[in-house]
Amino acid sequence: MEPLATSQITRTPIMAPFLADVRVLPPKGLNTSIYLDLNRFSRQTAWAHAFMHAYALWLGPVLLAAVFVAMYAVAWWRRAPRAAALLFVGGVGTLVALGLNQIVGHAAKELRPYDTYRHALVLVGKANDYSFPSDHSIIAGGLTLSLLLVLGGEAWRSRQKAARGADEEAGESPRSPRLARTLAAVNVVLGLFLCFARVYVGAHYPGDVVAGYLLASAVVLVLFLIRPLAYRLVDTVEPTVLATLLRRPAPLATGAIGAATEAEPLIGPGLEAERQREGP
């Protein structure tokens, strides 16, 4: 595709009567300049259009969700129910942020950038909803911050182990597993790239994706304030069958039971009577 012609940008003042009815939220100049620059860059990188279309539309959210589920699997496998519970809180926070996004969007009423700049290149289907904030960046911000907040060592050991100091006795670090830290770093990259992709394909202004990312982060942060309550719920669920939703079941101590069974005849009354008959 040919680059975005300079004349297309310079004709913007002629459209002033039309643009007067279109709300481009502040910072208007920065939103406009970055959007048009990235749109020009998009025209010059046609080789990436197929991938960017898929990533901005569905591949990015799918990868973010996959990494999120992988983090839950790590917490479940390592028997860290507190970390699993916090991930559940983060997922709920992301859904709440998506709901709030609808309220904020209808309050702001910012039209999509391709409704303002009719000659802009758009690589995805044109939507009929408002542009601010971006719902894709809501997913990116909510899931990414959830993984980062779970990295605290407190979430990766049980209350009982913390009370007994079992981690220190066994020489284990209270830090989160290396795999968990790697997954969190990967999600940061995937989330930021999704925000970039939404502007690259022409669907949003930069301010839209920044606002969505920050809105989701704020909601998740507020919900993470209830983590003491989440920890209490985990302690309540631990003795029940529902604990298998938060952690891998502990193995049965068959070796110890077998040893106790074999040792039981050694302390029985029969052996004592035999010893008395044999004498000294």
List keywords for this structure.
280 residues, mainly alpha, Vanadium-containing Chloroperoxidase, domain 1, 0% strand, elongated
How are the SSEs placed, and which strands pair?
Elements (H helix, E strand, L loop, with lengths): L5 H5 L5 H4 L8 H17 L4 H29 L3 H28 L4 H4 L18 H15 L9 H6 L1 H4 L8 H23 L5 H18 L3 H11 L16 H10 L5 H10 L2
The secondary-structure element order is HHHHHHHHHHHHHH
> Percent of residues in beta strands?
under 5%
Number of distinct beta strands: 0
Architecture, according to CATH?
Up-down Bundle
**How far apart lie the N and C ends?**
105 Å
Oligomer: single chain
Q: Helix coverage percent of residues?
A: 55-70%
CATH level 3 topology: Vanadium-containing Chloroperoxidase, domain 1
Using the coordinates above, name the CATH class: Mainly Alpha
For the largest beta-sheet, the strand count, sense and barrel status come to:
none
Number of DSSP helical runs:
14
Poorly predicted runs of 5 or more residues: 1-22, 162-173, 256-268
Mean pLDDT: 79
Overall number of structural domains: 1
Radius of gyration: 29 Å
Description:
The chain is an all-alpha fold and 280 residues long. The protein has a single domain (22-252), classed as Vanadium-containing Chloroperoxidase, domain 1. The chain has 14 helices and no strands. The chain is elongated. The model is unreliable at 1-22, 162-173 and 256-268 (pLDDT under 50).
